[in-house]
Amino acid sequence: MQNTRKINKDYLFLGLGCLLLLVGIIFSYSADAQQKNLTIDEAVLGAGGKLIPKNAEQLQWVQGSSLYSQGIDGVALQLMDAKTGKVVQKINLSQINSSLSKSLGNIDTLKRLPKVTWINANTFRYNHNNSIIAYNLVDKSSKKLANFNVAEMENAEIEPKTFKVAYTVNHNVFIDGKQITFDTKSCLVNGETVHRNEFGITKGLFWNNDGNQLAFYHMDECVVPEYPIYQLHNRPADARTIRYPIAGTPSHTVTVGVYNVTTAATVFLKTGLPAEQYLTNVCWSPDNKYIFIAIVNRAQNHMWLNQYDANTGDFVKTLFEETDERYVEPQHAMVFVKNNPNQFVWWSERDGYNHLYLYDISGQLIRQLTKGNWVVTEVNGFDKTGNTLFYTSTISSPTERQFSSVNIKTGVSTQLTTVAGTHSVLLSSEGDYFIDHLQNINPQREIAVVRANGKKRTNILTAPNPLVDYNIGS
């Protein structure tokens, strides 16, 4: 009898164990059943954007103030005070449309809030009906600043003070409808990117700081062989030709022209020989008297930072040189120190990592500003004194972007963001606040206004995770 009871107990415990296991499996299945798998449409196309974390519309600083603006559902723009976090003004789409009709007469109204750019603390501009229009917050008036033809113009550069528009049509440069270069051969290119967009070259038109002179690239690639590129998306496939200088064959040659808006005269900088060299990182001096160019030889192992007279085109001097047995790769134009036109910041990989160096205008190195086994990825600007420079770097990890400041007089850096992830930063024009746009696994997106010393943080948005109900790997 005892053996029978023991066997029955064993079966009882075994039965209870199986029951608990079954209950666990059921609960586990129920929990898993609540999780959804991504469809092909969701995984590839994002299901029309529903899986993108919520974002803040048109977040930007108002020039010359501690105010920032934010769009609201495409129908309004509100101004926020970074110091108090309070709304100080709201501009509705209906107000802008009313101003358009009243100030400019017969013009189409806006269906949605356009992308705006602040000119000063009281005025923003936007593009509408092939025009640049300014809206004044004080008297609620609208003014047409410039016209342009979107259909034919390319590479447009709007001068922020005079609102002159420089652009290209068929490889020639125009300013507000007036043609200033007159080449007829397709192998002669003006005002466009050159050197295959290498060395940080992203455009071919460069306004000076007062908007009365325009520097532009001129590229002669007539000796470069043409190659066919097949357009497979067309039926039947057709071909377009490009000119590509392969190793051992002649390359294109580039010069820089300077057009004076007042005199309508053009001079070309005397960049010298050899003709086959790279003219990179074009930069105007703060007083508009000089243009600086980082010139790289075709072997790409020697760089000269040269200064030229913008009015005569004459070579002035070489500020300094950089060499490397493999290659040099200047990617950024010099950044002049705020309130001190006699000093500038230069990016260089001379120590193996992309870092910042402080120079005087004669080309004398003052000090290395950043140093370490990491790279600077962005220069964000200065504070109002010009003594503090803000930058973004990979100081914590190659997969992260963190925001820091450095005192240019002492070279002492301070890391202002520490949470793991990518910090995309907008610095106010006075350098006293910054908007920190943080993205990582958790939170998906967080946006905050932060005091420049990193101590006061006011949250604007914490986006909910749109993938919370999906089976997603880590």
Structure annotation, total helices: 3
Q: Which regions are unreliable across 5 or more consecutive residues at pLDDT < 50? A: 1-33
Q: Got a strand count?
A: 35
Largest sheet: 5 strands, antiparallel
In brief, what are we looking at here?
The protein has three helices and 35 strands. The chain has 474 residues and is mainly β.
Give a written overview of the molecule.
The chain has 474 residues and is mainly beta. It has helices spanning 2-33, 40-45, 93-104; strands at residues 57-61, 67-72, 76-81, 87-92, 117-120, 123-128, 131-136, 142-147, 154-158, 165-169, 172-175, 178-179, 188-190, 205-207, 213-220, 226-231, 238-243, 253-260, 266-268, 277-284, 290-297, 302-309, 315-323, 335-337, 340-348, 355-360, 365-368, 376-382, 388-393, 402-407, 413-415, 422-427, 433-439, 445-451, 457-463. Strands 13, 14, 15, 18 and 19 form a five-stranded antiparallel β-sheet that branches. A four-stranded antiparallel β-sheet has the order 1-2-3-4. The protein has a four-stranded antiparallel β-sheet with strand order 5-6-7-8, covered by helices on one side.
